[in-house]
Design goal:
The structure is a single chain. The protein has about 190 residues and is α+β, with helices and mostly antiparallel strands. Helices cover about 25% and strands about 20% of the residues. It has one domain. The protein is built from three helices and six strands, in the order ααββββββα. Strands 1-2-6-5-4-3 form a six-stranded antiparallel β-sheet. It is globular and about 45 Å long.
Length: about 190
Amino acid sequence: MTAQHQCDGTISPGAAGALEKVLNTRKFNHAPGGWLTRTTEQLQADYDARARWTLKLHRCKVHADPGPEDLAIDFGLYDNSDLVGNGRISNMHPYEMGIEAHAGFMKAYIFAECVSPQLKGSQERPARIRGTLNVGTPVPSDTVATREANLTVLHSVALAVVKKLGCENNAGLPDKPVLKAKSITHSAG
């Protein structure tokens, strides 16, 4: 099974190369289908229920074949208090993508806002969607290339999620990942 077949085929050709780098393999275990539909249905249900956060996450798990290398991707609703703003998360670097994006050697996050006919009321109250990528074992090296590979994979899957939800302007996500690190402002204290 190839990288592009993972997460219901949401891995773009560019992201497939990044996924292979992150997990150090070109072969992957078979991934069960239906993840993308379950995820978008859960996001719709949570939005309709006016939930602040998604409590039931559906994870896309990717496993190298053979090997212990794995990663998991999930999506849920977020609250504005989840945003970091101009601050910094330990071992993470901010990037200029979506409402907010952060990437590190073990994790990546993308925050976006979606207005869609599938989400009643989103014109007035956009759905706040957070994507998370977690890398399992073994721990990859902490390099710019690793961070950018994690963000590239997450961006590819996030783009598929917002397209399936019918988000206007792809919820502000570009067609290709923006791998430009965002400068951090430090407050005088």
